[in-house]
Design brief:
Blueprint (H helix, E strand, L loop, with lengths): L1 H25 L5 H24 L4 H30 L3 H11 L2 H8 L5 E6 L2 E6 L3 H27 L3 H29 L7 H23 L3 H11 L4 E5 L4 E4 L1 H7 L3 H5 L3 H4 E2 L11 E8 L5 E10 L5 E10 L1 H52 L3 H31 L8 E4 H18 L3 E5 L7 E4 L1 H17 L5 E12 L2 E10 L21 H4 L8 H11 L3 E7 L3 E12 L25 E2 L4 E5 L3 H11 L5 E5 L2 H10 L4 E5 L7 H10 L9 E6 L6 H8 L3 E4 L4 H11 L6 E2 L1 H6 L1
Parallel strand pairs: 10-12, 17-18, 17-19, 19-20, 20-21
Antiparallel strand pairs: 1-2, 3-4, 3-8, 5-6, 6-7, 7-8, 9-11, 11-15, 12-13, 13-15, 14-15, 16-22
Helix pairs in contact: 1-2, 1-8, 2-3, 2-8, 3-4, 3-5, 3-6, 4-6, 5-6, 6-7, 7-8, 13-14, 13-19, 14-18, 15-16, 16-18, 20-21
């Protein structure tokens, strides 16, 4: 009988060890409950094994040792089971503290419960057994077991009463069943000992069946909790995109709902197909290195364009056991990209056409303006008739107004295309302000307006910035103020504030006593091609681009512009621009030099160079006449050519210091002519500076010409002053004699 009982309890231990091993294989580090139950299974198996060994002992001392080892396991099992019950019930507060805290009191009882004098061992029909010696420790142990069972039962009942989900109620009932089974076995042992009989191994049998019930509860809890295994199946079937699972032989095994909807076929029909039956795809699609492959394919059935992602599935031995194929229908995206591409091509062509149109219009308009302004400047320089000079002055004003309109349109085109860049350089604020006052003085004087410049003398003079754009911003605002002011004054007030040691914020405030702006129109001031108060200003020339250009240039230079206006009283435009200060020089007084008219120097060139030789190449005879007239007073020796081929003949015969070369010429244009000169072995003017003359003032042309090999760039219409300054820069210094006018300009 005792060997039968030993064999039975030994099998209990083996089964429990197998349960523990199955948990170990799944990985006991997944979460806390896995680790706790694995420990409980090992302790339960140890208790069964020790109690089985007690049954077959004949020596009482060895039996006592086996029982002591078993008691260690049973106390540990109680602690683990209590923690599992608390974990599953999600109990909180004092009940959790009492339940967990009380079960750990068994650590105190353990040393006394294994003492030899507290136990009586005797041989029975079912093997070696024992009885408690009645006393304090046996009572304490019995009370401990009863209270521990009641605690766990209370926790399970608490879980049952507060459960909302069916899953939690099932777990609570299972825990109550486990507690009842274990308590029945323990009660059987205790009652037999109280009746004077040796303990029957009911506690061991009860705890085994309790462990089995607990294992079923553990499995149920794992199946119903959110895990990778159960959630992956849910995600697989609920995802909208088509998903196909192939085995290692590339046979289709599983399809999700998205795949059946995509193919408009049942799952059974889908499983009869190969991947190549579904998509127009290379038969080696599954032959790839790495874990993932992405290919583009077209669906045979729907003619859709798809992006297919193929992932390999590995087993524990890193062998491929299948493939996951996820299909993304990208038909709409591809078609949209194609539409966007076509629209972009059309937009690029339209933008290119606009740029070509503006370049052509610039060339076509600037060419006659160059003749008008050039001839007119010769009249201003050479005529002494007061009436003729007055007429020429009116022509000059009208030409400049027309040129400003053209420049505004071209500048706005540059800004909108993103091709306008800020080119920084060191400049003199005093010199720029003096030039601005000189340029605006005549127009203000003609209208009887007072032009006032207020500039603190300690304002830094040498600044690092884009002088051309700063001057353009202030000039646009000043000319607008003069244009829309009929009487009174226009005042430019300059101030500065140091932002850093070498950075100042310049403030230019232009205040006028003009017609002002209505409050509701202030927000439209910087809109392109929009002129506010049109009914009041329709007689005043303008394109509506000046302030729009100012606003965009200011933003490009990281500044700001503000407007304050009272309709009928005047306006104040305030521009703030950050600039770097270079050196310690200050502006000083602007009143040191009075405003001078260009007529004061009309007969005096900036330099004379009778030994210098210049070659001017242009297919337009009028342009050559203008150049001749502008350079007559400089005494420079000018040779003219009307085509690229004539230019090549000239440089083969003569050495020139500077070559003025037009770009747009029939036959051989300026760029081809320059390339031809560089390739000529007998070019006697190889060291000459070649300056391109062009009516194309679009964005990026200067950089383009410099890249082609030109030394500099001069836009038409050609101004005499600009031409003289450019020649002074490139003519040999020994051949140039600077006049007093040239020195004052410097």
């Amino acid at each position: 009988m005792k060997y039968f009982m030993f064999f039975l309890i030994y099998n209990f231990a083996v089964i429990t060890y197998i349960i523990g091993y199955s948990i170990l294989r799944k990985g006991i580090r997944e979460n806390r409950i896995d680790r706790i139950y694995f420990t409980a299974a090992m302790l339960s198996a140890g208790w069964s094994l020790c109690m089985g060994l007690v049954l077959i002992q004949t020596d009482q001392d060895k039996a006592a040792l086996m029982r002591a080892l078993g008691m260690f396991h049973i106390f540990g099992l109680l602690i683990c089971n209590t923690h599992m019950v608390v974990y599953w019930s999600n109990v909180r507060g004092r009940l959790k503290q009492w339940t967990v805290g009380f079960i750990w009191l068994g650590v105190i009882l353990f040393p006394f419960m294994i003492q030899r004098r507290n136990m009586i061992f005797e041989m029975t029909t079912y093997g070696m057994s024992y009885r408690f010696v009645f006393g304090v420790w046996s009572v304490a142990y019995t009370a401990y077991c009863v209270i521990a069972a009641v605690n766990m039962a209370c926790v399970a009942i608490y879980m049952l009463r507060r459960s909302i989900r069916r899953r939690d109620r099932v777990v609570a009932y299972s825990l109550l069943l486990c507690i009842c089974v274990v308590c029945f076995g323990c009660a059987l042992d205790t009652i037999m000992q109280m009746a004077g009989f040796a303990a029957f191994p009911g506690c061991t049998i009860g705890q085994f069946f309790g462990c089995v019930v607990l294992y079923r509860t553990y499995l149920f809890h794992n199946r119903t909790r959110m895990t990778l295994e159960n959630m992956s199946e849910f995600v697989y079937y609920s995802v909208d995109e088509p998903v196909f699972l192939f085995d290692e032989a590339e046979r289709l095994c599983i399809v999700n709902n998205g795949a059946t909807l995509f193919l408009d076929m049942s799952a059974e029909e889908c499983r009869k197909m190969q991947l190549s039956d579904i998509f127009e795809l290379d038969h080696n699609a599954f032959r790839f290195r790495g874990n993932k492959n992405r290919v583009e394919a077209r669906c045979w059935k729907r003619n859709n364009i798809c992006s297919i992602s193929i992932d390999k599935i590995y087993d524990d031995y890193k062998d491929i056991i299948g493939y996951i194929v996820i299909v993304h229908d990208v038909t709409e995206r591809v078609r949209m990209l194609e539409r966007v591409g076509r629209e972009k091509q059309r937009a690029d062509k339209a933008n290119e056409a606009k740029s070509v149109f503006l370049a052509n219009m610039s060339h076509e308009i600037r060419t006659p303006i160059n003749a008008v302004m050039g001839m007119n400047e010769m009249i201003l320089r050479e005529s002494d008739d007061a009436a003729v000079l007055e007429y020429a002055g009116n022509i000059q004003d009208a030409s400049k107004t027309l040129l400003v309109l053209i420049n505004d349109i071209l500048d706005f085109s540059k800004i909108e295309s993103g091709m306008l860049e800020v080119v920084e350089g060191v400049y003199s604020l005093k010199g720029m302000l003096k030039a601005l006052r000189m340029e605006c003085h005549m127009r203000a004087e003609d209208k009887g307006l007072a032009l006032i410049f207020e500039v603190p003398e300690d304002t830094p003079d040498r600044l690092l910035g884009d002088e051309v754009r700063v001057r353009q911003i202030i000039l646009n605002i000043l000319t607008n103020a003069v244009k829309y002011t009929m009487k009174g004054s226009v005042t430019l007030k300059v101030s500065y504030q140091r932002v850093k040691e070498d950075v100042v914020e310049l403030t230019f405030a232009v205040k006028d006593t003009g017609i002002g702006i209505k409050e509701e129109n202030i927000g439209r001031l910087f809109d392109k091609f929009d002129r506010v108060n049109e009914e009041e200003v329709h007689t005043i020339e303008g394109s509506g681009l000046g302030l729009s250009i100012v606003d965009r240039l200011v933003k490009l230079m990281h500044g700001s512009v503000e407007v304050e206006s009272v309709f009928g009283e005047g306006s104040t435009f305030t521009v703030r621009l950050p600039q770097k200060a270079v050196g310690m020089e200050t502006v000083g007084s602007l009143e040191e030099e009075s405003v001078r008219h260009e007529g004061h120097r009309k007969n005096t060139p900036m330099f004379t160079a009778p030994d210098a030789k210049i070659l001017a190449v242009d297919d337009n005879k009028v342009n050559l006449t203008v150049i001749r007239g502008l350079l007559r007073k400089t005494k420079v020796q000018v040779t003219f050519a009307q085509s690229g081929s004539e230019c090549l003949e000239c440089v083969a015969k003569e050495r020139y210091d500077v070559i003025l070369l037009d770009h747009m010429m029939p036959g051989m244009d300026g760029i081809e002519t320059l390339a031809g000169m560089k390739a000529m072995p007998d070019n006697r003017s190889r060291e000459a500076a070649v300056i391109v003359l062009t009516a194309n003032a679009m964005a990026g042309v200067r950089e383009m010409y410099l890249e082609k090999g030109f030394d500099d760039y001069l836009a038409k219409p050609i101004e005499g002053t600009m031409l003289e300054q450019l020649l002074m820069r490139y003519l040999p210094a020994e051949s140039v004699c600077v006049t007093d006018v040239g020195k004052s300009e410097d």
